[in-house]
Design a protein that fits this description.
Layout: E1 3-7, H1 16-29, E2 34-38, H2 44-48, H3 60-65, H4 70-73, E3 75-76, E4 82-85, H5 92-97, H6 107-112, E5 121-125, H7 132-140, E6 143-149, H8 152-155, H9 158-171, E7 177-186, H10 191-204, E8 208-214, H11 217-221, H12 229-232, H13 237-271
Parallel strand pairs: 1-5, 1-6, 2-4, 2-5, 6-7, 7-8
Antiparallel strand pairs: 3-4
Length: 272
Amino acid sequence: MGRIIAVANQKGGVGKTTTAINLAASFAAAEVKCLLVDCDPQSNSTSGLGFLRDPERLSTYDLLIGSANAEQAILPTELEGLFVLPAHKNLIGANIELVAAEEREFRLRNALQPIRDQFDFVVLDCPPALDLLTLNALVATDSVLIPMQAEYFALEGISELMDTIERLRQSFNPELQVEGVVLTMYDDRTNLAHQVTQELKKYFGEKLLKTVVPRNVRLAEAPSYGKPALLYDVHSKGAESYIRLAKELMDRVLRQNKRALAEKLAAATSGS
């Protein structure tokens, strides 16, 4: 069963969509089949992979309102092994249309369930808000990857996101966990960056990922060409950092799976 990772932070401008696109592309480059699901009405993940905004194309909106299934909406990309479930600005309407809908929080989970076994990873790009779209993504996901800048204001509001995750764990998704926190647009020349990093280490411990994504011009340019960084400039520091991030997350998932298997075997042995 594919592992679903939601890339989420209610604060905008932290490199969330850049992380979603390039993490998904790096999984695919490692010959790990990946689906990127654009859950943001801005549809930047969609355009960042070279797809023009098309109101006639099936999108995440159709999945949420139930007019299409995921199999019908998935598109192949330029990168082998990477697929996208596109979004469009009409997704804004889902926030209103789903208010009175049955099982409104489970729409995305139910839509992805039939196809998640076809992928090793499913990456969800969430809007920069704690709205019904983000709620659907967090109910559908196994874990949350939080991109953050090493700046003072980035620390504000993180407790709100953590509180939301805890409430969702209690009400809708008991298995939900924080996959990790990744520092983005990092400038290690500033004292503030080092101070914020130390604060995050105290708060998150080993959940703060070792991989750091630096400020990088090539990384910023890539979306305007409709390409992930590793297709635009594979030797750029930005592309290399996301390749390392994908490897770090794959290694973590492998360790988690081994632990879960060991626990099952131990429980089976003690039961017998």
